[in-house]
Amino acid sequence: MKRHTFDRLLKTVATIGPLLFFAVASIEGLLRPGYDPIAQPISALALGPRGWVQQANFALLTISLAAFAVTLRTRLGNGVAAVAGPAIFGLMTIGLTLAGLFTMDPAGASRTVAGQLHMLGGFLFFPWMPVVLLLVARRFRRDPRLHRYFGYTLATALFCLATMVFFFAFVGVPGVSPLSNLAGLVQRVQVLPFLAWMAVFAGRIHLDPDDRR
Known about the structure:
- The protein has helices at 3-31, 51-76, 80-101, 113-123, 128-142, 150-170, 183-206.
- It is mostly helical.
- It has one domain (3-211).
- It is globular and about 50 Å long.
């Protein structure tokens, strides 16, 4: 496979994969008997006989993040963000791998090693969303080639940061936090803008004249 073709394949996966992940999780949540997308997180879809659907969905997002990391590294070229940004996406990819391989503990069940590893995977993914966006936004602000992405990236970063603070303050602990019954809704509000940003950025640079070689 030629390098140009491989690069376009990576960008296509990075563009389509994140939104396809969210679409599959949303549809599966509506079709799954007894599942409440408002109260239950996306990870709960990996429980039960149909759990393989969400496990495959996690694998899709893992591949998409890895493809995006390579795409970002290629597009940024040199500089701190060009190394640290893809490295953080690599860390998030490890987190998603753990989340996909190890299912969460059901509500009210005793903690298991698998459940703890799943939780670790979450901590390697969610808190890093605003971090990597702020890092990349700083680079976009200084780079004339990519400055057009700065405003959108910064706004997404601040939104992800605000929802992260809200989650830890009011939602995070089941049965204890005042809004823990909205965990599924808040998680979706957290992650959708980030996944959309990935899709938009990868899709736009797919059409960027600088990338047509």
